[in-house]
């Protein structure tokens, strides 16, 4: 509850800081706000699970852990913005405010107890993302991405809203517990409930870019400014999966036999579409977009299983994935800026990393660790993320899905290693890139977190 | 039951309901079928008025008023403006392949079939006419629900609108080198 209130109020404060002539205060102010919210989020860690505002908002360790991941990721990403100082047409006050407000939406999606809260949360998050996608106004691809995202997103929202209306028609309530009560009390729930649930799921799966609702993802992630691509591929995904988990486990675990097959098919499609298409990409940024689709598939695998382990599995996986993605994009932003001086087309391709290992050993190491983590190689957090997800699926006995998932993660190793090979084995004229101390600190921190969780995963797993 | 018997058994409310439904479907079809986009918009306004009639029948008087003010008023005027700006007079033949058309037909038809099946199977709850509160759709009871039970989402909707406003200003602001209209 505290994060929502604080983020709403302090977001306004940051917006008004934009009236000042000097823009230097904005970055530290936003970081301070996020640090305060992060602390406030964990203040009630040891309390009993509780409901706030007339059963609108739910808080327990799971939601707090997820809000924590989202706010922490936002902190790291904001730290990587460098205050937008090198771009004259940038409007940093608006960007930071939109980021803070979008976090309000993310926290609402994580802790919703009422479908209305879920809807308002998703809308706040999506609308901020539409705007941030199109924030590079002079870039035609950014404009296209924003328009595409907006139109598709509006459709998905419409379908989702229709689903909620049907659920209300069937159960007479928007409340998760009341819906669960209805599902438990009726042996044969009305057909409206089934259709409503499916439509609601379609809308939410669109937001996390699961196949076959993923077609917008590569264009949007590719067209958006890289810093906001990072934001979308971590925070929107994390919040979306928390919301789907809360919905399915909170209300619909009673009709598991109805929805599991649908979700299983979507999971397999997502894994196949994401991993196989990623192999053919020549642009690193576009490859990361497809890789985010494939990671949505792994997270969905854990949701399809929906065992007692799923909860901690998706918390761990989201954290590992977010941290690794942030460091990968952090390196890409530096390299693309350096390469972009010579040739604009090559700035975001794999070739941009050629020769990175020689002159910039630190950046190459950070990139390597993040790629290894995304690929799920042992000694990184990503390995344990995949391990927990796979073991939850094994618990449920979904062997055939497990086989596909493991096959697909070996495909994943191929395209993640393309970046590592480019960095260490290819010759390139990349000179030493100047990295500001703070930026360096953030990259080192994400790498250390990835390695620490890779060495002792129980540290986090025991908490939730 | 033959048709005249059906007509004789109609209460005024059900008669009105059938008449409104007929009008809604008719105007809705006309939105899609008419060639001129301006006519489509005008038919859409008529559809919204019919829907407002349905809201009144469902005891949702406030919703009926808001529907007319917001949709038939504000949003449709925007539609008209946009259409006039784009100047869509000439009838552009749509360049859709047959495959797209067939795919759209199959998808739309499947959805339609599912909905027909669902609503045929659904048992809608009966209501008690004596204990029913006829004031349920008025502003007063709505306000009580909105400011008591749904206070948090109601307040947070303001964040949503603020975000949209910031975005409109940010994206619409004229840059240094932009063209002046």
TrEMBL record, chain A:
TM helices/strands, residue ranges: 26-43, 64-85, 97-125, 146-171, 191-216, 228-248, 254-276, 314-336, 362-385, 397-417, 438-456
Enzyme class: translocase
GO CC annotations, alphabetized: endomembrane system; plasma membrane
GO molecular function: NADH dehydrogenase (quinone) (non-electrogenic) activity; NADH dehydrogenase (ubiquinone) activity; quinone binding
Domain of life: Bacteria
Annotated Pfam families: Proton_antipo_M (PF00361)
This protein's UniProt keywords: Cell membrane, Membrane, NAD, Quinone, Translocase, Transmembrane, Transmembrane helix, Transport
Record's subunit section: NDH-1 is composed of 14 different subunits. Subunits NuoA, H, J, K, L, M, N constitute the membrane sector of the complex.
Biological role stated in the UniProt entry: NDH-1 shuttles electrons from NADH, via FMN and iron-sulfur (Fe-S) centers, to quinones in the respiratory chain. The immediate electron acceptor for the enzyme in this species is believed to be a menaquinone. Couples the redox reaction to proton translocation (for every two electrons transferred, four hydrogen ions are translocated across the cytoplasmic membrane), and thus conserves the redox energy in a proton gradient.
Identification of the protein by name: NADH-quinone oxidoreductase subunit N
Organism: Runella aurantiaca
Organism taxonomic ancestry: Bacteria, Pseudomonadati, Bacteroidota, Cytophagia, Cytophagales
Gene name of this polypeptide: nuoN
From TrEMBL, chain B:
Bilayer topology annotation: Multi-pass membrane protein
Keyword Transmembrane: yes
InterPro entries per the UniProt record, alphabetical: NADH_UbQ/plastoQ_OxRdtase_su6, Nuo/plastoQ_OxRdtase_6_NuoJ
Principal subcellular localisation of the protein: membrane
Gene Ontology annotations for the cellular component aspect, listed alphabetically: plasma membrane
EC number, UniProt record: 7.1.1.-
Gene Ontology MF terms in the entry: NADH dehydrogenase (ubiquinone) activity; quinone binding
Subcellular location: Cell membrane
Pfam family, one: Oxidored_q3
Function in brief: NDH-1 shuttles electrons from NADH, via FMN and iron-sulfur (Fe-S) centers, to quinones in the respiratory chain. Couples the redox reaction to proton translocation (for every two electrons transferred, four hydrogen ions are translocated across the cytoplasmic membrane), and thus conserves the redox energy in a proton gradient.
PANTHER family: NADH-UBIQUINONE OXIDOREDUCTASE CHAIN 6 (PTHR33269)
Stated name of the protein: NADH-quinone oxidoreductase subunit J
Gene source species: Runella aurantiaca
